[in-house]
Amino acid sequence: MNLITLHHSLYYCRESNWGVLFENLYRQILTSKGAIHAVLMAADGNERYTTSWLYNRFVGNFFGHRNTQNLRRFKKRLQNNRPFNKAQILVKTSRTRFFVDDFEKFMAVVWMILLYPAVHEYDTQQKEEIVTFIYNNFWKRKRPLTQLQDHLVIYRGIGFKGLI
Fold it and tell me: Which candidate in 42, 65, 131, 163 could, as Cys together with 148 as Cys, close a disulfide (CB 3.0–4.6 Å)?
């Protein structure tokens, strides 16, 4: 394959297994000139009202879980891994915004974020707290949901600087 995309799919794979996954993709599936492109919600949840911040706030408070899957940190691991010695490995963060004039559809996206990578069993009071927070801080103010997304690209066999 010339291009392998892992867009928001690494949530379902433990970060400790990423090295083996990427090494196998790189060695066995990627052609001599190609790229692997991975995208995940940025692990840094410090910027208020981003999806990472929301995830860490609610899932962290209710279940003690934090978003720790980090493509920036993984890049450093790859750079020290022999199979990737000649690869060009780049990482960049982008900002994506979402808003729709339908509260149910807006909440569907919020729930998608708050339920992955593991499905958390929120009780009624927790659900009400989340919905109220989203309504008051996003919907009523027409504030878009912002997601910082980390993009990791591994280029193989190209003689120019990659696009990220």
Answer: 42
Q: How many helices (H) and strands (E) does the chain have?
A: 5, 4
For 134-162, what is the mean pLDDT? 95
Contact of 113 with 57, CB cutoff 8 Å? no
**Cα–Cα dist 132/28, whole Å:** 49
pTM for this prediction: 0.89
What contacts 32, CB < 8 A, 6 or more positions away?
Answer: 156, 157
Gap between the Cα atoms of 62 and 33, Å rounded: 46
Strand order in the sheet with 34-41: 3-7, 34-41, 145-156, 88-98
Question: Is 133 buried (19+), middle (13-18) or exposed (0-12) by CB count in 10 A?
Answer: middle
* Residue 160 and residue 101 in contact, taking contact as beta carbons nearer than 8 Å: no
Residue 116: predicted pLDDT: 63
Q: Is the dihedral of CA 7, 11, 13, 17 positive or negative?
A: positive
Contacts of 140 (CB under 8 A, 6+ apart): none
- Residues ≥6 apart with Cβ < 8 Å to 82: none
